[in-house]
Amino acid sequence: MADWMIVYETSSETEAHIVAGRLQVEGIQAVVYRQPGAAALGITIGRLGTVTVLVRPSDYERSLSLLEPEYLDELPDTTDDISYIGIEDDDPDELTD
């Protein structure tokens, strides 16, 4: 695995497989790797608990760009525009019924 690069790390094997699948759909060869014996020992924290997604060096930059959120700048920084339907501002007891 010396010629592979880590493109994603998580503690969830399921999440790692979802990420690898996303890259594979785009034609990038991705491998999910977990330290041998970690799952058998039930270790889910620290270095043995880490699950990594690996890609070839030639696909590294493209992989990173595919995994970045596309619309991060479009999300509002405030909740001022959210409308709460059915809750009156002047009746605080309404939420406790």
Task: Describe the structure in your own words.
The chain has a domain at 5-69: 2-Layer Sandwich (Alpha-Beta Plaits). 30% of the residues lie in helices and 16% in strands. The chain contains 4 helices and 3 strands, in the order E-H-E-H-H-E-H. It has helices at 13-25, 38-41, 46-49, 60-67, and strands at 5-10, 30-34, 51-55. The mean pLDDT is 79.
Outline of the structure:
The chain has 97 residues and is an alpha+beta fold. It has a domain at 5-69: 2-Layer Sandwich (Alpha-Beta Plaits).
List the helices and strands and how they pair.
Blueprint (H helix, E strand, L loop, with lengths): L4 E6 L2 H13 L4 E5 L3 H4 L4 H4 L1 E5 L4 H8 L30
Antiparallel strand pairs: 1-3, 2-3
Q: Which CATH class of one domain applies here?
A: Alpha Beta
Largest sheet: 3 strands, antiparallel
| Number of DSSP helical runs | 4
Query: What proportion of the residues form beta strands (DSSP E)?
Result: 15-25%
Low-pLDDT stretches:
none
Would you tell me which CATH topology of one domain applies? Alpha-Beta Plaits
What's the pLDDT, averaged over the residues? Answer: 79
The best one-word shape is flat
Give the name of the CATH superfamily of one domain: Hypothetical protein rpa1041
List keywords for this structure.
single chain; 97 residues; alpha+beta; Alpha-Beta Plaits; 3-stranded antiparallel β-sheet; 4 helices; 3 strands; 16% strand; flat
